[in-house]
Amino acid sequence: MGGVTSNMAAKLAFFPPDPPTYGVSGPPEAAEGVVVPPQKVVLTGVPIGSEEVEARRVLTSRGNEIVVMYIRNKKAKVTFLHSHGNAADLGVMYGLFVALSNHLRVNLLAYDYSGYGRSSGKPSEENTYADIEAAYKCLVETYGVKPESIILFGQSVGTGPTLDLAARLTCVRAVILQSPLLSGLRVMYPVKHTLWFDIYKNVDKITRVRCPVLIIHGKKDDTIDCSHGKQLYELCQQKYEPLWIEDGNHCDLETYPEYLKHLENFVKAIEMMTPDFAKTEASTGTLELFEKARASSDRSDISRKVVSFDRRERGRMSTGYRERPRHSTDGRHRMRKSVDLCENSGDGVANKPRKSIDRFMIRAVGLCNVDCLTEDPSKLKYKN
């Protein structure tokens, strides 16, 4: 019965492209229970080819194999770990990722969540947390990127795993949140308190992020209202000047010239900063840190030099309520209305072209957002 709640959340939150927009050729997936190092694969069907781009299969702590893509830039001083939005995969985002890497002069590692693209498993909140952990570990251990040079970049639904990881790391350089949500339930209803069955409780996690945070949101966002971004901005401990795009909607922010300009200014500012943790914390591999963190159940000490991924989440509730176990089915009738709305809309909702998805339905189910990013960099308004 415990899986019912997470299954409902998955129906509300996750819409991977079906079929995937790219293919993978290379070593087959590892047998269940077999741990193998990240293996190189080749992405097929993507619009742009480059020797600076490579992909790998990476095993997560929950047993899924996700596909990660790493873009090198010879002039890069920092590296983005990008968590993309909904109804997208690496094939959809490929052109934009290459453009961002080129224009901003950053390395960029992106990944597909479990059940997205050619990643195995099924989409769920817990799986996305394991997915970003595996991507981070790959970035540090396989590619040798120093934790203090990593900028976590989350878009829309991707702000959930991004903030979950950022709240645990002490060595992350900065965080970028594009069209972020306060929580899954708050997208649908203006609740004032965090409830146990809510998902992606960003509103409770952002106060534990100690690095600079940049928030970008469109003022005319009809999927996740701009008020979400503004409230998260107020809760940031280290605020960087936000960008509120006057006519920006949920899925067109990249087409505005001020979007790239603001990102450029942010990256330059971060590159010039010497974070306090860089003076005292040694950059070590993450394998030992992960194991130590999992053995600990104390989530309150966020200044320690380990990456904490304990899922019991003590002290996370800001309302005085005691958070019930994630696998409880109590209160599932509260979510049924939204599930029914999604089911009654027709079997093909998740498979419709990105530009034709009914906006009313998107608002009804909250996280069923469509991050229709420009695939062809030449169509973007900004130039080199």
From TrEMBL:
It holds the Pfam family Abhydrolase_1. Residues 83-199 form the AB hydrolase-1 domain. It comes from the Eukaryota. PANTHER family: ALPHA/BETA HYDROLASE DOMAIN-CONTAINING PROTEIN (PTHR12277), PROTEIN ABHD13 (PTHR12277:SF81). This is Alpha/beta-Hydrolases superfamily protein. Coiled coil: none annotated. Gene3D superfamilies: alpha/beta hydrolase (3.40.50.1820). Residues 313-333 are annotated as: Disordered.
